Amino acid sequence: MNITIISSSTRQGRVSHRIALALERGIVRLGHEVQIIDLLALKLPQFTERFSHLDDQPDAWRDTLDLLLASDGMIFLTPEYNGSFSSALKNFIDVFAKQGFQGKPIAVATGSSGAMGGIRAAYQLQQVILSVSAYPQPQMLTVGKMQDRIDEKGEIIDEDFGVRLEKYLVAFLAFSAKFAQGE
Ligand SMILES: Cc1cc2nc3c(=O)[nH]c(=O)nc-3n(C[C@H](O)[C@H](O)[C@H](O)COP(=O)(O)O)c2cc1C
Q: What is the pLDDT of residues 94-117, one digit of tens each?
C-alpha cells in the first residue's frame, strides 16, 4: 500500500517531526510505500479558498492533491498546542477538503513534551476527519515526552514505545487494507 504522513508542526526546533520519521521507518519495515507531506516545507499560505474552487491552481498544490488521492491511507500527525491540534494542519485540511480526503482511512498521531501525549488534540482531530467524509482509525498513537522516545533521525530510543508504535502501524495497515480491497 501507499501511505502518506502529514507532519504538521511548522515550529522552529520542532520535535514531533521525529514521530513522522519513526512512522516512516516503521511503514517501510512492514513492507509498504510511504511519503511525508511536511507542512513546514509546503508553506501553504493562510486559507482563502478550497483548492478545488481556485481559478489559479498552483502546481505544487496540485502535486500535493495528487499524492493525497493516490494514498491508500493517511496519518495526520500533530503536536498539541493549547489543547488542540496545529493550526497548520487545520489550514491544510481546509485547503484540500473534501476532495483530498473523502473515503480515505486516516489515523491520528499526536505528540507533546509533557506526559499526556496530546490526547485532547487527538480526539478533536478524529471529529474533523469525520467532517471531511473520511474514516478515522479507532486506535490513535499519543506520544508523551516524545523527546525521550525518538531521536532526531527518527530512531526509537524507548523499547516500550517501539512496541506501541508497531502495534499501531499494524492496526492501521490492516484497517487501510480493508479499504484498498473495497471491503
Ligand atoms: C503554542 C504552544 C502550545 C502548547 N500547548 C500544549 C498543550 O496544550 N498541551 C501539551 O501537552 N503541550 C503543549 N505545548 C508543549 C508542546 O507539547 C511541545 O512544545 C512540543 O514540542 C510541541 O511539538 P513540536 O515541537 O513538534 O512543535 C505547547 C507548545 C506550544 C509551542
A: 999 999 999 999 999 999 999 999
Q: Which domain holds residue 88?
A: 2-180
Q: Is the CB of 152 under 6 A from ligand 1?
A: no
Which residue is closest in CA terms to ligand 1's atom 6? 81
Task: Report the predicted TM-score, pTM, of the whole model to 2 decimal places.
Answer: 0.98
> Domain containing 168 — which CATH number?
3.40.50.360
Total count of domains within the chain: 1
Kindly report the protein residue whose alpha carbon is nearest to atom 29 of ligand 1. 81
Q: Is the CB of 112 under 6 A from ligand 1?
A: yes
- Distance of CA 112 from the midpoint of ligand 1 (Å): 6
Is the distance from CB of 126 to CB of 140 less than 8 angstroms?
Answer: yes
Buried residues in 78-87 as b, exposed as e (16+ CB within 10 A):
bbbbeebbbe
